[in-house]
Design a protein that fits this description.
With about 350 residues, this protein is of the alpha+beta class. It is built from four helices and 24 strands.
């Protein structure tokens, strides 16, 4: 009996060790593909990108032609889908089809990879095949086997291994992986089943130097500032559940100029955090929508607050309807301390895209 027990203890330890190793392996294999995101620019063009985190800030790398020449892009994760907005920077020479954007919004919680992942191993750099990762419209991960036919100083040439495969429009920005290593980014389709990839080493070298020299300035310059009135509580946008119809209609507009325009989803959520560390005392909220007829407006609205540090204990504060003129005004309520504010748009006054112009708290 003593001998049997003595054997059981090492076996239990071995099983625990194997489970730990398996968990680490799963995380390492799946974390990198999870950084593949869909990118949409303000001209209605779509592509892909790859997210990473550096010094606490989330970034996305994408081809310059995918980012376009306007200042914002919309960024969407794999399923379960989260959304964000990117502020684009184009610091590289014009012939390098590369841009980088600071990403903010709910998608930031998925942003876990490191730029160093692009510093790939020699084995990955000498590979003869790879997998191209893209996302479906619903956020499902799509994998396509590539044959790497030629490696130049700056690029890979690749063809789809599937006999009936095709590289359709909108593939630019998708990364190819060898195992869990991202070896290159699609920048050009040469025909229906072949494409050119910018090598990861080229991306890594340029992006690393840019962040080392200008990363702090870029991060500070991209932070949205709430243009609050003197008596208004200053807010930071945390996340939304409905992506904007175009980057220029991003939810960040709620705190500055313009409108947040989106296709309604059930119980659309907009979450803010009070700027700074201390809770604010709230007693009044106003929400406005344009009533020019270009978009519909919210109807039933529920506002919840949370005074905790982690934002996990919301309770109802205000409930009501937006008037047909696009005004929702709670009037004075009993004061309430809050660090987090959640605005739920439960339904709308008509079908079609919804516009919200401003949310102000006092």
């Amino acid at each position: 009996m003593l001998e049997t027990s003595a054997l059981k203890i090492p076996m239990i330890k071995l099983l625990r060790l194997m489970r730990s190793v398996l968990t680490v392996w799963i995380v390492s294999v799946t974390a990198l593909p999870a950084q593949t995101v869909s990118v949409a620019n303000d001209m209605g063009e779509n592509g892909y990108g790859w997210m990473f985190r550096s010094q606490g800030t989330c970034y996305v790398i994408t081809p310059r032609h995918v980012a376009g020449e306007l200042p914002r892009i919309s960024v969407t994760s794999a399923a379960p889908v989260l959304n964000g907005t990117g502020t684009v920077f184009r610091p590289f020479w014009p012939d390098l089809d590369l841009a980088i954007a600071v990403v903010r919004g709910g998608i930031e919680e998925r942003c876990t990879a490191s730029l160093d992942r692009l510093d790939i191993s020699r084995t990955a750099g000498n590979a003869g095949s790879a997998q191209l990762l893209r996302l479906s419209a619903s956020g499902e991960l799509l994998r396509h086997r590539l044959d790497l036919t030629r490696r130049d100083y700056l690029t890979w040439q690749a063809t789809l291994a599937e006999a009936n495969g095709s590289v359709y429009q909108g593939t630019s920005g998708a990364f190819a992986f060898v195992g869990h290593e991202p070896i290159g980014m699609a920048i050009e389709s040469e025909n229906v089943n072949s494409l050119r990839l910018m090598r990861a080493a080229e991306i890594y070298m340029n992006v690393a130097r840019f962040l080392e020299e200008e990363g702090g300035t870029v991060t500070a310059g991209s932070a949205p500032v709430h243009e609050a009135k003197a008596d208004e509580v200053r807010l930071e946008l945390v996340s939304t559940t409905a992506p904007p119809t175009a980057p220029r209609h991003a939810a960040e507009n709620l705190l500055t100029d313009g409108s947040y325009v989106f296709e309604p989803v059930r119980n659309t959520e907009i979450i803010f955090r009070v700027e700074g560390d201390a809770a604010a005392t709230l007693s009044h909220i106003r929400i406005t929508s344009p009533n020019d007829g270009a978009h519909t407006m919210p109807k039933d609205i529920l506002v919840m607050t949370d005074a905790s540090m982690d934002g996990e204990r919301f309770r109802t504060w205000v409930r009501g309807q937006m008037a047909p003129d696009g005004q929702f005004d709670s009037g004075r309520t009993a004061p309430r301390n809050a660090r987090w504010i959640k605005v739920l748009i439960l339904n709308t006054r008509a079908v079609g895209s919804v516009a919200v112009e401003q949310i102000s708290l006092y």
